[in-house]
Amino acid sequence: MTAMRSILGLSAICLAACQPTYNWRDVSFEGTRVKAQLPCKPDRTTREVTIGETPVPLQVAGCEAGGGMWVVMTTLLPAGQDPQKVLQGWQTATWRNLQNTAPPNQPWQAPQALPGAVRVSTQVTQADGQALQAQGVWAAFAQPDGTQWINAMVYHPNLPAVAADTFFESLRQP
């Protein structure tokens, strides 16, 4: 019996050690064709936000993995709204909420995305003084009834480049 307990205990230790830091999984958003990968099982919420003068439902999926926070947000902007202005406005609001100045944008290519998609990376300081790397992507995709907007963010004290690339490159609208 003691040998069996030792084997079971050793098996539990091995299983815990074999759990990956990032357990990538596909995530989709109700009523959209948006797909992404998150490194952990996401929590989800939908809330109404106002973009321009139009209230829209914002779908959010996010989780914590490997010491960082990973978030994807999406909404359908009604026809007639300028995607460039919306993307720029959302970026400005993000940096304002982080109490940080907007870093330089880097053009970002996503399959089928409208021109103007960007990827940004900067350092931010949390209220407790801890420095975090913040990386984000803002992109828009044409739809028959408007524009699907996507914002993905990761906040991490020491973000591995391969994890950030996996996350952002997974954003798509097949």
Multimeric organization: single chain
Q: Detail the poorly predicted runs.
A: 1-19
CATH architecture: 3-Layer(aba) Sandwich
Provide the succession of SSEs. Answer: HEEEEEHEEEEH
Described by strand count, sense and barrel closure, the largest sheet is: 7 strands, antiparallel
Number of domains: 1
Strands in their spatial order, largest beta sheet: 3-4-5-9-8-7-6
Counted beta strands: 9
Describe the protein.
The protein has 174 residues and is an alpha+beta fold. It has one domain (22-169): Protein Transport Mog1p, Chain A. The chain contains three helices and nine strands. The protein has helices spanning 2-17, 83-97, 161-169; strands at 25-28, 35-38, 43-51, 54-65, 68-78, 106-107, 118-125, 131-143, 146-156. The strands form two sheets. The chain has a seven-stranded antiparallel β-sheet with strand order 3-4-5-9-8-7-6, covered by helices on one side. A hairpin with a 5-residue loop joins strand 7 (118-125) and strand 8. Residues 1-19 have low confidence and may be disordered.
